[in-house]
């Protein structure tokens, strides 16, 4: 057993735990190595006894106290769901110390639910709901106190990429930078030519990923009026929901085109005939024909078919292109990326 020096603070709880028995994923998931004892260092004196057993089942006892200071045993079990488990907990009461112990006197009273969310091998967040009068709902973070010798826990996979900043608030898709909308965003540059560069902004919240293209009009608004020459460039966003991707554009890949007629495709791109012109799950302001030359784009996680917290990163490529006008020209960020090869796109970590 791997034992911390803090063990002494929890020794009584361990001795109680020994007497209770129960019969009974790319993303981080609960593992047998999470078995052991857990507590909050600032609240030494109560804590969890956790066992990960066969069949994806987690057995938990929380040795704690009620609001009146009475000792309370709360025990339950639940099925693993990724990095979390929801347990139906019972209060265990009515026992007596051996030799007076009588199993028929034990009462298990439904107490409520306890949700455990493991962020790594050594930290867990608790959220609980109860309608028992001697308790109250709440949340608490706990840390590993002891582990089981021979049961290893593999940490979450490390992802290399750019971090998408968390947006300060919702963004109005109107082609104008309202006060505070993009203050938290990070930026990159799409190079068109020496006198024509577009700034890409990106940020996200719990529902959407946001992008903005600034100065799409080019010098003296030439990009906005030179339609006759077929040189007008339009903003596009490519997203891979399973990075790093391969060299095949498949159903993990999404294409968003923002111009006079906004267009979306999944699994292929640059096909105006097969385009989805309905903006369900995403929005972009129409191509700006006048200053300030800003295109704002909002894409929902639902449109991307991903779940916040379960998908840690996406692959992104941004471009200014004239491909739909017959002259295929791409000005991409990252500069060395290839629109047809998701493996070349930038991995970006969601907040």
Number of strands: 21
Strand sequence of the main sheet, in spatial order?
2-3-4-5-6-7-8-9
Q: Give the tally of structural domains.
A: 2
The residue-averaged pLDDT reads 85
Helix share, percent? under 10%
- The poorly predicted ranges are 1-26
Q: Which architecture name of the largest domain does CATH use?
A: Sandwich
Spatial gap, N to C terminus: 36 Å
Shape annotation: elongated
Order of helices and strands: EHEEEEEEEEEEEEHEEEEEHEEE
How would you describe this structure to a colleague?
The chain has 351 residues and is mainly beta. The protein has two domains: 2-147, Lipocalin, CATH 2.40.128; 162-349, Immunoglobulin-like (Sandwich). It is built from three helices and 21 strands. An eight-stranded antiparallel β-barrel has the order 2-3-4-5-6-7-8-9. Strands 10, 14, 15, 16, 19, 20 and 21 form a seven-stranded mixed β-sheet that branches.
List keywords for this structure.
single chain, Immunoglobulin-like, 351 residues, Lipocalin, 7-stranded mixed beta sheet, 8-stranded antiparallel barrel, mainly beta
């Amino acid at each position: 057993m791997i034992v911390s020096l803090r063990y002494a603070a929890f020794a009584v709880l361990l001795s109680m735990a020994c007497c209770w028995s129960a019969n009974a994923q790319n993303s981080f998931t609960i593992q047998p190595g999470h078995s052991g004892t857990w507590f909050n260092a600032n609240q030494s004196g109560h804590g969890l006894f956790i066992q990960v057993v066969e069949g994806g089942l987690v057995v938990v006892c929380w040795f704690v106290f009620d609001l009146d200071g009475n000792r309370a045993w709360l025990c339950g079990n639940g099925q693993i769901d990724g990095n979390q488990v929801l347990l139906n907990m019972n209060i265990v009461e009515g026992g007596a110390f051996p030799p007076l112990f009588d199993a028929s006197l034990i009462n298990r009273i439904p107490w409520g639910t306890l949700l455990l969310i493991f962020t790594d091998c050594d930290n867990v967040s608790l959220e609980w709901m109860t309608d028992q009068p001697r308790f109250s709902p709440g949340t608490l973070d706990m840390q590993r106190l002891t582990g089981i010798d021979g049961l290893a826990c593999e940490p979450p996979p490390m992802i290399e990429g750019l971090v998408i900043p968390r947006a300060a608030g919702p963004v109005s898709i109107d082609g104008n930078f309202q006060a505070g909308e993009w203050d938290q965003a990070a930026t990159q540059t799409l190079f068109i030519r020496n006198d024509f560069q577009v700034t890409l902004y990106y940020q996200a919240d719990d529902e959407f990923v946001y992008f903005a293209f600034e100065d799409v009009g080019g010098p003296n608004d030439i990009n906005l009026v030179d339609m006759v020459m077929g040189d007008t460039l339009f903003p596009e966003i490519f997203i891979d929901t399973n990075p790093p991707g391969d060299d095949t554009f498949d159903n993990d890949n999404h294409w968003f085109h923002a111009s006079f007629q906004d267009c979306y495709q999944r699994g292929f791109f640059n096909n105006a005939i097969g385009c989805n012109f309905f903006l369900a799950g995403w929005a972009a302001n129409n191509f700006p024909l006048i200053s300030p030359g800003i295109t704002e784009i909002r894409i929902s996680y639902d449109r991307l078919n991903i779940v916040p917290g379960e998908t840690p990163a996406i692959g992104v490529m941004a471009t200014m292109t004239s491909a739909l006008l017959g002259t295929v020209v791409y000005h991409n960020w990252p500069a060395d990326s290839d629109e047809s090869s998701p493996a070349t796109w930038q991995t970006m970590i969601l907040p």
